[in-house]
Every structure is written in structure tokens, then in C-alpha cells.
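Consider the subject:
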Amino acid sequence: MKDQIERGYPKLLPELEQLCKKIGFTMPSDRYAGSLLRTLISSKPGGNFLEFGTGVGLSLVWMVDGMDEYSKITTIDNDPNLVRTIKPYFEKDKRVSILCKDGDKWISEHKGNNFDLIFADAWPGKYSELDKTLNMVKVGGFYVIDDMSEQPNWPEGHAAKAERLAQYLISREDFHFTQMNWSTGVMMGVRVS
């Protein structure tokens, strides 16, 4: 068996991939992580989803593709230029809310509903404010991170941080986690209590 994507790509994906190259964005999520996210989101009809690290929308487009008409997603990025660039691609979809905020501050101030899936593709929600973020996942909901396999652009010492993060997540009794040496290194957890 080989890695493959089970069905077609989101309609906007090629355009967003070109945008990524055009503006020189160097931290995109890959198609495999996107396909996994779409699959997971499809299991949660009427779901409430959250992403940290909108970037150029390469993960967002997959997640939106997996959502039904009653679902909603909030995606947060602290880069105003990226948010301004990506908003026009999603502004007609009332299910999508793109926020330009500091992720750590947003997490610490969040008082709303919990989420059926959180994709933490930025420092906030992954390396900072982690416990608060995990507490925002509904029982039966997913917490997903990627870039857990060493990447060429990692600064010195980051591999040790990623390993500590993985060990901490696995040690939690309120989640079941699976580590996958696949894509850029994916960890997926389901909240069980």
C-alpha cells in the first residue's frame, strides 16, 4: 500500500498552492495532512472546529471541504498580511471565521464552546497554552498536530522540544494519542474523558 489521497482535491487547493509559492510562504501543510484533516472533520456533522496557524489556507481549504453545511470553523493567525491575503478566498463562506489575533491571548480569553477538532499548526495551542487548548477539545473530539518529524528548517534544539511535547501528550490519561511517521510527522489524539 502506498500513501494516497482517497478522492479529489479541494477546488481552491491549486490556486492556494500557487499563492504559497508566489509569496514565498515557507511553512505550508502538505496534502497528506490536509486529506487526514478532511477525513476527521467529515466524521463530525454540525461540528465546531478550530485551527491555529491559518498561513495561506492550505489546511483550511481541506477542512472546509470536509465540513457539512451546519459546521463552522475558526482559524487564527497573528500575521496581518497573511490574513489579508487569505480572507478573500473564504469570505463568502459564512461557516468560516478568519481572525488576526495573538493565539496565546485568544486561548487565554476563550470562554465559548469547546471544539470537535483542533488543528494546532502554530506555536500557540501546541507549544504554548497547550493544557488550556487540550481542555477546549470535546470528549470524542480530535486534537491534531503536524511537523513532529524533524524538518530542515528547524532551529537548533527544536527536535528535543518536539520529543518532549510528544512524550507529554502520550502521558495524558484524558486522551488517546497515535504518532504517525507519515507526512511531516502527525500526532492525533481523541479526548476520552
The longest helix spans residues 158-171. The chain has a mean pLDDT of 93. DSSP finds seven helices and seven strands in the chain. Residues 151 and 184 are 8 Å apart (CA to CA).
